[in-house]
Amino acid sequence: MVIHTAHLTTADLAQVRDLMDTAFEDFTDHDWAHALGGVHVLLRRDEVVVAHGALVQRRLLVEGRSLRCGYVEAVAVDPARCRQGLGSQVMAELEALARAYDVLALSASTAGVPFYEARGWHLWRGPSSVLAPDGPEPTPDDDGAIYVLGGTGLDLDAPIACDWRDGDVW
Questions:
Q1: Full-prediction pTM beyond 0.90?
Q2: In this predicted structure, what is the pLDDT of residue 157?
Q3: Fewest 10 Å CB contacts: which of 46, 55, 103, 109?
Q4: Number of domains, the chain
């Protein structure tokens, strides 16, 4: 099911948040807020959400261009159902929305890197930063974790900046 946050029921939201808390040891309220306001992919088994991913709009700056970015958030599969292709199904649905954006991006965990690379995502090799309230700030801890899909003609070695948000900026 592909659905916008505005159309999720209270029960849907509760199930997705429960999944995030089960799948991740350190899923914060900021992480939850980052996943809201866009499009969600929900996979259910027996009326229970067992896999999820969200795509929210953000702005990225690369080489003086402001890019409309579909940013992937909160991709998770119920740990009891891993290795059944559910994560791939979620990502295929999210990636199918790529033409609505200049580029898709995400911040990959170390464990997630092989999964995203196998799907054709590319590591952003250039230095990263955030457009913070007091001006641009480097985010060197995020270098090596930012992946993109699409964005024809982008120089993956160029500096990249994301818009500001509370919590993890990337």
A1: yes
A2: 98
A3: 46
A4: 1
